[in-house]
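RECORD TYPE: inverse folding
INPUT: structure tokens
STRUCTURE:
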């Protein structure tokens, strides 16, 4: 009797990263910080090595939360958020990472240390900078934002000038009624009258004051209040807001339900977004809509396996077989990846 199991490199994902000291400039000196505890959502953890590096192997494909323990930094150190995207949800100590089987995810963290502590660390050798880019007078350039991160920021409302949307009734500007969050945190934007105060609650509990991101006031008499990094608990979270004047009189009560769906229950074909051509040269595209038991779409980043009947094979499996021509009849199950709300 022979038992055959999937290769760990095909059926599992790997997470790597680095904890370094320095500001967010790409040209700043990066010094690894050893001995920092890095944790996953299930309580498993790793400690950074002498170069500040860590890794987790054999993770189940999907979305994970990786967090660093600030108390394990050298005394006086603190983490800073150089990512500034929905992957960090406004937190300098945690990241959301998503991957499929056989993929490599990266989550780096940056920290600011007191000068005496930083001097005690051994800097990591850097590659020499060419004369074309070593001009001391040239200002440091911020790290480029990847297309995926930019798309995530837009989906989370980070790239919107809410005040420029103009005046209107007191109401939620974000999230919209059909908003599909990509991570278990959310940004909230409410338009109201100038001078009014908004008391926001989620699932009946007042939100943490630290989540308030400020108020923008228009000369035309209206204002916009913004919160970010509000955690979503379970599949449904209820946002409620009480808008009051300076003398305490309530002028509006607002409510919005936010669904963060993680358990797929139904899959349907989206013909208008599919390309069902099997001519041997054109790669077909199979677009599917993945919803929960109530018909609500799952959030972006959800992954899973699907089955194709012979003689059909997924492009991913064909590419894998071509790259493993000496490994026999090994097969990788085709997978889907929820890319957004359609």
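DESIGNED SEQUENCE:
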């Amino acid at each position: 009797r022979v038992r055959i199991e999937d290769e760990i490199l095909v059926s599992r994902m790997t997470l790597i990263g680095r904890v370094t000291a320095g500001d967010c400039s790409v040209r700043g000196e990066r010094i690894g910080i050893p001995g920092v505890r890095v944790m996953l959502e299930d309580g498993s953890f790793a400690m950074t090595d002498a170069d500040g590096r860590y890794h987790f192997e054999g993770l189940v494909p999907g979305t994970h939360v990786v967090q660093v323990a600030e108390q394990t930094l050298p005394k006086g150190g603190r983490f800073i958020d150089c990512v500034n995207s929905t992957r960090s949800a406004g937190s300098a100590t945690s990241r959301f990472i998503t991957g499929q089987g056989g993929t490599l995810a990266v989550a780096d963290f940056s920290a600011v240390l007191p000068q005496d502590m930083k001097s005690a660390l051994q800097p990591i050798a850097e590659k020499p900078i060419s004369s074309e880019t070593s001009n001391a007078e040239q200002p440091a350039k911020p790290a480029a934002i990847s297309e995926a991160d930019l798309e995530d920021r837009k989906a989370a409302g980070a790239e919107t000038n809410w005040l420029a949307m103009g005046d209107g009734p007191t109401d939620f500007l974000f999230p919209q009624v059909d908003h599909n969050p990509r991570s278990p945190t959310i940004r909230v934007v409410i338009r109201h009258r100038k001078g009014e105060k908004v008391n926001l609650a989620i699932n009946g509990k007042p939100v943490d004051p630290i989540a308030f991101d400020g108020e923008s006031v228009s000369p035309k008499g209206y204002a916009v209040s913004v919160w970010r990094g509000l955690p979503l608990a379970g599949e449904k979270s209820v946002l409620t807001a009480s808008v009051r004047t300076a003398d305490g009189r309530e002028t509006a009560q607002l409510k919005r339900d936010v669904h963060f769906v993680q358990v797929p229950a139904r899959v349907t074909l989206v013909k208008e977004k599919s390309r069902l051509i099997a001519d041997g040269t054109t790669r077909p595209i199979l677009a599917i809509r993945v919803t929960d038991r109530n018909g609500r779409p799952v959030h972006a980043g959800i992954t899973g396996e699907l089955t194709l009947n012979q003689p059909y094979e997924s492009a991913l499996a064909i590419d894998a077989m071509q790259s493993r021509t000496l490994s026999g009849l090994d097969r990788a199950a085709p997978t889907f990846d929820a890319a957004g709300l359609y």
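NOTES: Residues 125-137, 322-330 have pLDDT under 50 and may be disordered.
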